[in-house]
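Incident review: delayed structure delivery

Summary: a single-chain prediction request sat in the queue longer than the usual turnaround. Root cause was a stuck worker, restarted by the on-call engineer. No data loss occurred. The affected request and its eventual output are reproduced below so the record is complete for anyone auditing the incident later.

Affected input:
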Amino acid sequence: MKDDQTIVIADDDPEDCDLATEAMRLADMSNPVNIVRDGHELISYLKNHVDAEGERKPPAIILLDLNMPRMNGHDALKQIKADPELAHIPIIVMTTSSNEADVEETYRLGAQSYLVKPGSFRELVEKFKHLRRYWFETVRRPRERGV
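Output delivered after worker restart:
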């Protein structure tokens, strides 16, 4: 796993963000993490964030909650996947909803995965261990390209 592969968490709940970052640490995910609170902040981050060298570098993955203020996860997903400069970024929906309509809609809009937030912290750590193994150790993705 490359430590420079940033993960963006788009979630308006500070407690969920704190739990996620601690669970990532316990799952041996040493990736830098950036947190945004809604879809507008996510789009702004993706279009404007630059690294230390002043280059725009997309995150390795986005963890996207569906229930956020101002711009919800569905609308953010739709906007990202419609933008040719952003569409290649893997988006993993991670939300409390187990509603089948939400699952179907997010896949239709282009999400790569759909995870329901677990009920316990231990389960959250296990989900992040699986996520680390799959997205950062198992799959082969195209070479990083600037946004």
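Verification: The helical segments are 14-26, 39-48, 73-82, 100-109, 121-138.
Action items: add queue-age alerting; document worker restart procedure.
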